[in-house]
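Take just one protein record:
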Amino acid sequence: MNEETENKCGCSCSAAPTLIFSCSGAADVGELSDRAARQLTRDGKGKMFCLAGIGGRVSGIMKSTEAAESILAIDGCPLHCAKKCLEQAGFQNFKHIEVTALGFTKGKTPITDEAVSNVVAVAENHLNQGTCS
């Protein structure tokens, strides 16, 4: 992206990374959330970041998150642990996905490449909404 394109869309798309925080809970849908976040990182769509660091208010992790271009939270179930951690740390402007809302059932979801790809596709769509391309 050149400077002219950057100015037209009104943002600086390369200013800071997109950070991805995922549930990594004990349930299968937590594992699915975690694997999707790792795949998004491998695909260069963002950088998986430490949700425990947000919960512990680790200063470096908090500062990096404050500087992020965008934030995505991926939760496995309706408890929304990732979302709540971010909110309790003062973050309000982020995108959120709940894996069970995508049709996966807690306790009954095999962790397959296809399942990971499905969550990744939804996450990519969320990440592309409202951003420069």
In short: Residues 53 and 60 are 9 Å apart (CA to CA). Confidence is low (pLDDT under 50) at residues 1-14. The longest helix spans residues 113-128. The radius of gyration is 15 Å.
